[in-house]
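Lab meeting, action items carried over

1. Structure of the four-component assembly. Owner: GW. Status: complete.
Input record:
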Amino acid sequence: MTTAISLNQAIAAQVHDGDTVALEGFTHLIPFAAAHEIIRQRRRDLTLVRMTPDLIYDQMIGAGCAKKLVFSWGGNPGVGSLRRFRDAIENSWPVPLEIEEHSHAGMANRYVAGASGMPFTVMKGYAGTSLPDNTKNVAFIDCPFTGETVAAVAAINPDVGIVHAQRADREGNIQIWGIAGVQREVLLASTRTIVTVEEVVDELDPRPRDIVIPAMAVDFVCEVPGGARPSYALGYYERDNEAYRAWDGISRDRSHFTAWLSEKVLDIT
Amino acid sequence: MTTAISLNQAIAAQVHDGDTVALEGFTHLIPFAAAHEIIRQRRRDLTLVRMTPDLIYDQMIGAGCAKKLVFSWGGNPGVGSLRRFRDAIENSWPVPLEIEEHSHAGMANRYVAGASGMPFTVMKGYAGTSLPDNTKNVAFIDCPFTGETVAAVAAINPDVGIVHAQRADREGNIQIWGIAGVQREVLLASTRTIVTVEEVVDELDPRPRDIVIPAMAVDFVCEVPGGARPSYALGYYERDNEAYRAWDGISRDRSHFTAWLSEKVLDIT
Amino acid sequence: MSESTGTAAEAWTADEIMSIVGSRALRDGMSCFVGIGIPSTVANLARRTHAPNLVLIYESGPIGSKPSHLPLSIGDGELATTADAVVAVPEMFNYWLQGGHVDMGYLTAAQIDRFGNLNSTIVGSDYGAPDVRLPGAGGAPEIAASCREVTIIMRHNVRAFVPEVDFVTSVGFGDGAGFRKKHGLTGGGPQTVITDLGILRPDSGDGELTLTAVHPGVKTEDVLASTQWPLRVAREVGVTEPPTPGELEALRALKSS
Amino acid sequence: MSESTGTAAEAWTADEIMSIVGSRALRDGMSCFVGIGIPSTVANLARRTHAPNLVLIYESGPIGSKPSHLPLSIGDGELATTADAVVAVPEMFNYWLQGGHVDMGYLTAAQIDRFGNLNSTIVGSDYGAPDVRLPGAGGAPEIAASCREVTIIMRHNVRAFVPEVDFVTSVGFGDGAGFRKKHGLTGGGPQTVITDLGILRPDSGDGELTLTAVHPGVKTEDVLASTQWPLRVAREVGVTEPPTPGELEALRALKSS
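Predicted assembly:
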């Protein structure tokens, strides 16, 4: 079922205005190239789902793609704030941004429920915190065997799930090594999927502690070398920590950000 | 926290009469050596938990170790019946055997709940079947978000979890490649754990598509080469399909079985 | 139908035509969750004949296995070493099967009833004191619940084809129209039942099994006589294509491997 | 306490003694779930000094990481390549953390209250229009819920030490005795709060934070003045051991790595 096409075609085919879209990758393998293509295609009113919005959603939010953000930790890791995210929440720039926030465990379990074809799953957590007051997607239910109260979280099933991976074979089987985050879960939970990869190869020869995600979960594979920069792809290139530090200055004011967006994203074809 | 000791000492320390014990391994890595040691130490009144009782529990049941069996598929794969299991259920020989049966998905999820520190988890399944009529560990609950009815299964938390693996390092990290079954879940769900391994090595150098289970989940590691025979250990030895076929004859009548038990298990020191 | 030494057209056993017709139910490129026993033979036959790109899924964890010989168990080493991926058992059931990614589930059982419900647990009316204790459920209940469609393969006789199964291990269409939906069973249920006599398909209204084809040389009366309830018969009962020499050769090579 | 150029005994900053005392809370061989920021510095310092066998766990998946330099994010490549195992994020939270296998969780936050509850979500009284939008929860709520014990490290001032946090991101002892049990929080809660002024521990009765030690040169009045509620003080307030030259050297080498 997997088709190898250009990223431009894949985004045009799969991502529509108003969709719920998850671009995942936990620090590792963040699909920046796909995000930039969505920005270039000027998608609007997206509900963006992601555990750690990171620079990738800071850029999409600043570019005006998002109407809502579902997330669990919205910082620039080791650096500080996400300034476009804050500007959208605090000042509705460039458009108002609705938010729904969870814990990492809650988000991970919401993806697990989605991947499992369940409307919800159960976990310990949220109890005693202020988080449930601000979302409809957490409830508390009683164990039918012990009576113990546990948290229930609603499944997330994005319209489109997009991840980056190191490699794919020509059948569309996907290979990842290093930090795997929720890449598998978001592909399985999403109605439509795109995977950008460093390279398409004939044979996925094993790499240390790798996982393979079978092609059944993949609609489109796009070969995009460097597609995770300034995040990293273990075995290909390292995290560009300087770019993460530099983002703090670039994103600090709107005009500086807008200039960056034109030069580094919109004007690239 | 992991200690390397003899299998004899590990079983003596961890497995007591009346315990709930899970010896897992899905076709691959079935811990026969540990089972035989439990038989030799003449443990009684065990509740044996295992998805596929297989020859390993047929032998333990025939030897009189079990008072109850919790399982999901009780056959000799590709061969036919488990004759000691049937003799115990149908004729209470050598002692009566209480049974509780589930589907594979149900058992797997009961281990998942146990490994996750949850009293239960939810799944699709059991609905419309006769299985829930014969166990207290399945219930039906409503999704708090959609109202949909789903199955809930109670956690399994064995007193002792025992698995076989290919290798361990000296810290007790466990390495498995090939079919991993529910090895990880049973170790995490159990109060006490024993892992028999083909070899203890200084360094767990990567093997194709391997997983490593950190030592935090492991109490005792016992080096027992061949400890999964007549099951197999990928990379060490193949499944002894002839032994599985031969078991049908050995187990067919009580006297033949008893002679086998004495010669191959009890009289081995 | 028994071993034949007659004409070329009869040179197959009842089990052989069942397996060969069974293999034809699999389409190239689809994914198939393969149950223990005959389904594994049939799926591996299809992969060697018309469906080389069939994705074989075994409950022990392998996805995309390409075994060179017929495995004895569903967890033989070769299933793992030739697979595209090997996943843990909870992942297999929760993510791949329950998550709705598998095209076809292929099952067999000891009993089947008029609505395609399956029993592989006990024969007899008393669960606590069964006449025959069978292996039990294994992966079948959720395969039957969640695959996009289910194909069932089993020998056709009055002990196996009963009006109501002694124990519902795996749900077909329950007690008829609306049952699957009411119980949240997301897959399409048993769309094809292949026996050594012919092919049955569910009525599109209430899901009751209906004879739609017989194998060459089998009469409708033979099928009715081998079924413990008054079997529905389609207005036109077809005749299955006889095994080709290539199919027979592939099956026999597979069985001896 | 600011940068000092004075005697050897004063030759450290407030942040330095906080980190060093923080590192001492970690015991060799234990497992520690390491939060973002200062906790990562402190845990890596412990591993380079008295606790070489500390098992570092990062929410991105690595268990048993042995990084050669201080990671900027919790998902740097070296954390994975030097780990005993790297697990998927759902497995990390469900099996390893929620399953109760982690000895200590190490957290920081923007606000802490008298019962050790933490806020890393918003500053201000209106969630919809916060004065300051902070990053949010991340892994902290479940670390606080499920680790056998929790250690908190943060700078001590009246903006951070408030009677009641603006938003409960992570639960300490809630509103006092019985709260954790009532809410099913299986871990032991915050047993140690280390600041740049001293150490606070929960009252064994109701869990209210109590000053138990100050760093060399800090007075109890300094701590009271830096806390927005009337802080409980232990009958005997100890003085922490000053940093050793080895500790200071290791910390400075780590920070410049």
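2. GW to write a short summary for the group page. Key points so far: Chains D and C do not touch (no CB pair under 8 Å). The radius of gyration of chain D is 18 Å.
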